[in-house]
Design brief:
Radius of gyration of chain A: 26 Å
Largest sheet of chain A: 7 strands, mixed
Structural class of chain A: alpha/beta
Oligomer: homodimer
Largest interface: A-B, 46 and 46 residues
Shape of chain A: elongated
Strand order of the largest sheet of chain A: 2-8-7-6-9-11-10
């Protein structure tokens, strides 16, 4: 072709390490010391020899077990749930009084969670789950080594009741709707638990603990609570800090008495996944101010350090989660997650998740696209296409002109993947909202961006996005790249830490208590700030001195 | 008639105050100070105005309730069970945020147990139950005044699976047997709760707490646990100290989250009813040594004072609980519970429970009979009848000679109520066993009976028996009558106290910890002691100087 945009080429497709199916024999030790955490698991196990009762020692079967644990230097004053006590007579007979026992040790007195004939499963295993609205990510955790034995990702089956979380909340209002959503989620968690365990010869019914992390709506779903009040003014959850849960109580097929931690939320926008992210980042222990941003359906922003944490949130994200752009989609199989445009030859290359034929653009793909279109001169600073009408990469649609990202012959459904000027504008509003929130928060405490020590980027967005691109479009402030720290799936990582570290559990509650909500008053100053941020990278280019330098 | 035993007459029949049907408007204030107890109920209630959520205050619905309670000077740091959190959105709307809430306050943090639109039931009500093997006795308790509003007695429907508790334990071993016994008991407790509440315009589904007291087997039944190990060597319960129970968990139709206290047992023979009795007696605070005896299927004996408690038990009681004497029966309607024989005219008078035609003899009736037969010279000190053959009150049976207590024309089934010499001998063995246990226990600590300050007699036996009669037959030591203190239904009374007093709850655990078990070695010395005690009142009459003086 003689066009200035020659044929597009695919990049070598790389599978995301996190994406699908079980990895076997990929046990990763958890370096708690390296993260400044102690090793004090939620549940510990012991193999003990229970003294058989005699006429001289008529202590009950349950209390004998407690005594044997204490003798084995386990915790004292234990109590056993009724459901376990009921089976002890037969169990002792079968095991000749030699039993394996798992004990929830983060409470006083502790609580016996499982008891089996020795050697039982040998150690206490737990399940950490990131309850994403699109995907559920599981980690099978050996609480005692400690180590992550394996990871697994499943699609969230709730999508059949609503692609995005808002439509699911509305579906939950229908008769039977909530129940359908809750059951779908619980079944998927059970399925994930069963799958990840079976690969390793374990039975998920013998998992001794779980930690669940997710946004406020997702944690409400797993708890069986209606998220109705979360999406309606004044946007409040039913519960912030669920406590004392066991697996059986919320329909999870782990050991019935297994304790289940659910990360606390701090309102509709600050979910348990954010608390997890804060603890994983360690900014709650930082000596200098740090930022954490998590972009999902909403932009959640926390500024702070050891003494204080200030949070703000706004509806910034729909464009980045498949909610707005026609071709937008979640970061799932077939999503274009990376785009590069050669500055000279104007050749566009892209990458899809799993290397499958392209189906749409996920958040990081959209940010890449926006940045690359601007840096290569294919759009102007207002997001208008510079390609002339009739150019093969320009398509005229009902919505106006659009840019062809992936030609029809390379997509899954044979239709081109395009982004219109209208969609680019929505994207600009999203990035402007994020920058406005960041600016408002930092101004509220009298700091400037150059005083920020580290800038943590959490969530799926943070995992896949290229900070250079986010700076290039003016979404994130123009800091040196070494200050940007992607946290990966910090929701899952926080859940893993909560299973193995008492300090992590305490810090989750500490950040939950410390986090102060900054209400964003929509006033003229904020609107001015927003308007100025709607250009690429910003009306005030001096805020983004680095933009324009080549990104490769 | 010209016989030395002229026609028997009934005494004026008195209904037992405790026996059947609800008493209305019989509220009895509980004098805690008089019993040296504090008033700190298990559950307290508050009526609070919850602040409606706003954009400026996005605390979750559950935590708002906790905050409102704290503001109303209730406990801080509360948690709400998931089941209550789920209904809060609708409840607030219905109640315009003015709610009544009941909180379990004996734990830290407290736990929200009930929440209703104000004024709700107005205060926290609880149910105390004595789980007797024959009868279930209920008390409806106003935890906050505090007061007993009403009492109710129901027959234990488990009798259809076995008259005595041992036969029920065997029935529990059959397929489905345990479940049948557990369900029968739980249904009866639910029925009693519903009946006692309905009289007072209450709904048992709104009872905020319960305390259950009973022997070890009965508490195992209510918990759904098999009592199999209790009756088989080495006689151990499944659990000593059940904790953290809620009504829903054990199938009780109170408020589902209502905490349920189950009195702890200290082995097969020392049931929660005995712990209750110890606390009610106050001997755990006494400065001088006291005895407590509880005669049911077994004789349970505790000797002690503030610093120490020493217990022993033995199979003393079958004869006194309807298990041995052919005409023996439990202290139920139609049981002869009092017998007097005129010394001169040899006229026998008796009383039946409820004044119904006689059906048999209960424990106190048997003790009375034994004493009166001896004191009036109708039996000798070995329990042999002195009446000559052919006498109308003497009957020759397959078992040998028998004494006619109630003639055929006065009994329910038209057959005479008799006690044979063989049965009298069993009775003598029972009383000898009791005296032997008492002697063994007191000797083991180097005390003598005259050093005993108070002698508490607990249980149904203690409630109805005349201590003078028990002394006359040599069952209890020959102390001045003012030292004998009947405790009445101390099992129920202890449960009532546990509902309203933290000190009582603490003392239950304290006596549970302090109580030491004295194993009764069956050796020659014990056998000699037992043999000497098989006569009336004893081989060594100097031990019973008062016996022979007229009892009226």
């Amino acid at each position: 072709m003689s066009s200035p945009l020659p044929s597009f080429k695919k990049l070598t497709v790389l599978n995301k390490p996190d994406t699908p199916t079980v990895m076997t024999d990929k046990t990763e030790p958890i370096d708690l010391a390296g993260q400044g955490m102690d090793h004090s698991p939620l549940v510990r196990s012991w193999t003990v020899q229970v003294t058989p009762p005699s006429l001289r020692d008529n202590t009950a079967l349950a209390e004998r077990l407690a005594r044997a644990i204490e003798k084995a230097t386990g915790p004292a004053g234990l109590t056993a749930p009724l459901s376990l006590a009921a089976g002890l007579a037969d169990l002792y007979a079968e095991a000749d009084y030699r039993v394996w026992v798992a004990v929830q040790v983060d409470r006083d007195p502790g609580r016996i969670v499982m008891v089996e004939p020795a050697p039982g499963p040998g150690r206490a295993y737990g399940l950490a789950v990131d309850l994403g609205s699109t995907t559920l990510v599981f980690a099978l955790v050996d609480l005692e080594t400690p180590a992550v034995i394996d990871r697994l990702t499943l699609a969230n089956p709730q999508v059949k009741y609503g692609e995005d979380i808002l439509s699911r909340v509305h579906f939950a209002d229908r008769p039977g709707g909530l129940d359908a959503l809750v059951q779908a989620l619980r079944q998927a968690v059970n399925q994930g638990a069963a799958e990840i365990c079976s690969v390793h010869g374990l039975d998920s019914g013998r998992l001794a603990a779980a930690a669940l992390s997710g946004n406020t709506t997702m944690t409400h779903f797993i708890l069986g609570l209606s998220p109705r009040t979360i999406i309606r003014e004044p946007y409040v959850p039913v519960i912030n800090r669920p406590e004392g849960l066991s697996a059986a109580q919320i329909g999870l097929d782990l050991a019935p008495e297994a304790p289940v931690l659910v990360m606390p939320n701090k309102g509709a926008y600050f979910g348990g996944d954010l608390m997890a992210g804060l603890v994983v980042s360690g900014m709650n222990r930082a000596e200098k101010p740090c930022f954490l941003v998590d972009v999902g359906t909403n932009a959640e922003v926390v500024l702070g350090q050891a003494d204080w944490l200030l949070g703000a949130a706004g509806a910034a994200g729909p464009a980045l989660e498949g909610g707005v752009a026609q071709m937008g989609m979640a970061a799932a199989s077939g999503a274009v997650d990376r785009v590069r445009i050669d500055r000279t030859g104007k050749a566009l290359t892209y990458r899809t998740i799993d290397g499958r034929p392209a189906r749409g653009l996920c958040g990081s793909g959209l940010i890449d696209l926006l940045a690359e279109l601007f840096l290569s001169g294919l759009i102007d600073f207002r997001g208008r296409l510079t390609l002339p009408p009739g150019h093969p990469q320009r398509l005229e649609t009902d919505e106006g002109p659009a840019f062809v990202v992936v030609p029809a012959e390379e997509t899954e459904d044979g239709r081109p993947i395009t982004v219109s000027e209208v969609e680019l504008d929505i994207l600009l509003r999203s990035k402007a909202a994020m920058y406005t929130i960041l600016t408002t928060v930092i101004k509220s405490v009298g700091l400037t961006f150059d005083q920020i020590d580290r800038f943590y980027v959490a969530g799926t967005f943070g995992q896949f996005i290229d900070p250079r691109m986010a700076v290039a479009v003016g979404m994130l402030p123009d800091l040196t790249l070494d200050r940007f720290v992607p946290l990966g799936n910090s929701s899952l990582q926080g859940a893993i830490l909560a299973l193995v570290s008492g300090q992590a559990r305490a810090e989750v509650m500490e950040v939950w208590r410390k986090l102060t909500y900054l209400e964003m008053n929509v006033n003229q100053e904020l609107m001015n700030r927003f308007s100025a941020a709607r250009f690429i990278p910003h009306t005030n280019r001096s805020l983004f001195p680095s933009v324009g330098t080549t990104i490769t």
